[in-house]
UniProtKB/TrEMBL annotation:
It comes from the Bacteria. The keyword Ribosomal protein does not apply. It comes from Lysinibacillus xylanilyticus. PANTHER family: LIPOTEICHOIC ACID SYNTHASE (PTHR47371), LIPOTEICHOIC ACID SYNTHASE-LIKE YQGS (PTHR47371:SF1). It is a multi-pass membrane protein. Keywords: Cell membrane, Membrane, Transferase, Transmembrane, Transmembrane helix. This is LTA synthase family protein. Its EC number is 2.7.8.-.
Length: 631
């Protein structure tokens, strides 16, 4: 029988096709990318190709068939690792990997039980192309034939690869203008240029950002400073300094969204204690308050609260810019006689906290080593909230006063698991185990917070303190939209709904205040720094901060998200569309435009400060450039 005539370079072609098809299947099965039209579908289909043509095409430079095949298999292994790494990361963070996150290996080793929720045996299928290539190389003699590559063929091949790249970029530009210059969103990048090219792009951006710092000088700060000065909200004289010298206790409530507050799940109250605070005369409850975090999650929220600046659109600023100069809330309080500390029973290097807290001038970090984790007191990510908060209150008793303690809870964290003895309400029933369990861990945290208030009283630090509690970021990602829609009794979750779901609760509890109430201004985490410092009688008019005092009559109903979405009292901008806030209906974009421009300016100014490490040139005493920077 005459054997079939296989084209030359069959092994390379097999590799390209296998990895290409696998990548496209993975796009559809493992990532939740919103595809709106046939063009987007087509771009998604072709986008792995340009990179694969180059990566595998280098095989054409190898002389021996053995070396060539070995090279091809190696490339397939590396690309599979990259793709699978993204899949695993996505399951957890609902986002694609960016370079700086890879350097935080300590974070990955700490994931603990989360890893088992993320990885499963079927994942070997992500390496199927490698397997095919190994088998073909071994058992398919044709694959070993030595093929001499002539120069013309090679040239033609790379011309094709370049053409493919331009076709891809061209279509992407039509579909999403300015994609590569704006790049707020990793998903858009992956959708348009493919996961492999996205990583090349990411490497380029990261190296650019280290260059940016080297190139920045004080002059950039002048413009940013003027902008910030002209947008300052005046203090409210009735509130300014009203609680001077009180201790400050700030609690970051892990993954707590506002939709559970004053709500029920199958007839069970989810947050009875927090609900009681919403009606409490010593508490200001902010019901239109939003998180403003990005990929840095908890660490971004910490960054925002401390600095009243945004985290970055790429990576976690705690990692990428942990060595910058900042003018944090901790530093400001420290200058005013406060003993400043962060309490979080986790490994100190997680999110690079140990490094970053030095830059933020936090006096002491009570990490896991400061706690006694007894048997049965660890679940999921580490120490349970109840013993953590109880021991923290005991530690506060011995702190020099006034103190500023920032506490970060942990139990209400994905994958939202509890020991049976801590379960207080049943699971919800939907297609999302994550959402089903979420209600239970939220209920647990609520109880832990109630006990914490009691511990503060028992330790005698309650009366002379202000207790601020806020949700750090969302807990339920868009991956669970279907279950969320079911719970909220909606047909589906629109981009509008999703923006509103970024609301997190904020409580400012002031023992003895008496004038607490629900506050409805549209606001965000950025506003905490000026609000808190003003209550404690500390001036911030010269600080480089983007937020505004929540008690100021000039506070504007306007909150900007890290990804460029925003919410005002009238409009919501999400998914590149403008919505009427009252009805949730999409409207003409015109009324959103001025806000969109300001959102861009705010984000750009914040990025400029961080990327250029500009605060190293700033003298916050005078509100001017440092003398050295001017010279
Ligand atoms: C880790 C904790 C959780 O120490 O703060 O971090 P997150 O995953 O929510 O960013
Ligand atoms: Mn968190």
């Amino acid at each position: 029988m005459k054997s079939i005539k296989w084209p030359k370079h069959s092994f390379m072609i097999l590799a390209i096709v296998a990895t290409w098809i696998k990548t496209v299947i993975v796009y559809h099965t493992s990532f939740d990318m919103k595809i709106e039209n046939a063009m987007q579908q087509f771009i998604l289909f072709i986008n792995p190709l340009s990179f694969l043509l180059f990566a595998y095409g280098l095989a054409l430079f190898f002389k021996s068939s053995k070396a060539k095949n070995r090279y091809i298999i190696t490339v397939s292994v590396l690309l599979s690792i990259v793709l699978y790494g993204n899949v695993a990361f996505y399951r957890f963070y609902n986002d694609f990997i960016t370079l700086p996150v890879l350097f935080q290996t300590s974070n990955f080793s700490d994931l603990g039980t989360s890893i088992s929720a993320i990885v499963n045996p079927w994942d070997v299928l992500y390496f199927i192309d490698v397997l095919i290539l190994i088998l073909a190389n071994k058992y398919w003699p044709r694959m070993k034939t030595i093929v001499k590559v002539n120069v013309e063929f090679r040239r033609a091949y790379f011309v094709l690869a370049v053409a493919m790249t331009f076709l891809n970029l061209g279509l992407a530009e039509i579909e999403r203008p300015q994609l590569l210059t704006r790049s707020f969103d990793r998903e858009l990048l992956v959708k348009n240029i493919g996961t492999y090219n996205y990583h090349l792009y990411d490497i380029y951006i990261q190296s650019k950002s280290s260059a940016q710092r080297a190139l920045a000088d004080g002059s950039e700060l002048v413009e940013v400073n003027n902008y910030i000065r002209s947008n300052q909200a005046a203090v409210n004289p009735e509130m300014f300094g009203k609680y001077k010298d009180r201790n400050l206790i700030v609690v970051s409530m892990e993954s707590l969204q506002n939709f559970v507050i004053n709500n029920q799940m199958d007839g069970h109250e989810i947050t009875p204690f927090l609900n009681s605070l919403t009606k409490d005369k010593d508490t200001f409850y902010f019901s239109n308050f939003y998180h403003q975090t990005g990929l840095g999650k908890t660490s971004d929220s910490e960054f925002i609260v401390e600095n009243s600046l945004f985290g970055l659109g790429r990576g976690a600023v705690f990692f990428t810019h942990g060595g910058n100069t900042y003018n944090s809330m901790a530093e400001r309080l420290g200058e005013n006689g406060y003993y400043t500390n962060v309490m979080h029973p986790n490994n100190k290097s997680f999110w690079n906290r140990d490094m970053m807290y030095q830059s933020l001038k936090v006096d002491k970090f009570y990490d896991v080593d400061s706690y006694k984790v007894n048997e049965g007191e660890a679940v999921n990510w580490g120490m349970k909230d109840t013993p953590f908060l109880e021991q923290s209150a005991a530690l506060m008793k011995d702190m020099p006063q006034p103190f500023y303690s920032r506490l970060i809870t942990l139990t209400n964290h994905y994958p939202f698991t509890l020991d049976p003895e801590d379960v207080m309400i049943p699971e919800y029933t939907s297609n999302s185990g994550t959402l089903n369990r979420y209600f239970q861990t939220v209920r647990y945290m609520d109880e832990a917070l109630k006990d914490f208030f009691q511990s503060l009283k028992d330790q005698g630090v309650y009366d002379n303190s202000i207790i601020v509690m806020y949700g750090d970021h969302y807990g339920i990602s868009e991956n669970h939209n279907k279950a969320m829609a079911q719970y909220l009794g909606k047909e589906s979750i629109t981009p509008f709904d999703n923006a509103i779901l970024q609301e997190v609760p904020l409580f400012i509890h002031i023992p003895g205040a008496g004038d607490g109430k629900e506050m409805t201004e549209v606001s965000g985490q950025m506003d905490l720094r000026p609000t808190i410092l003003h209550l404690l009688g500390i001036e911030t008019s010269k600080d480089m901060q983007l937020g505004a005092d929540l008690f100021s009559p000039e506070h504007e109903d306007f909150v900007i998200f890290r990804d460029g979405r925003f919410v005002t009292d009238k409009y919501v901008y999400a998914g590149e569309a403008c919505y009427d806030k009252a009805t949730g209906e999409e409207i003409d974009g015109e009324p959103c435009q001025p806000y969109a421009d300001r959102a861009t300016t705010d984000l750009e100014n914040s990025d400029a400060i961080i990327n250029g490490d500009l605060l190293r040139f700033y003298d916050e005493k005078t509100g001017n450039l440092k003398q050295e920077a001017v010279e």
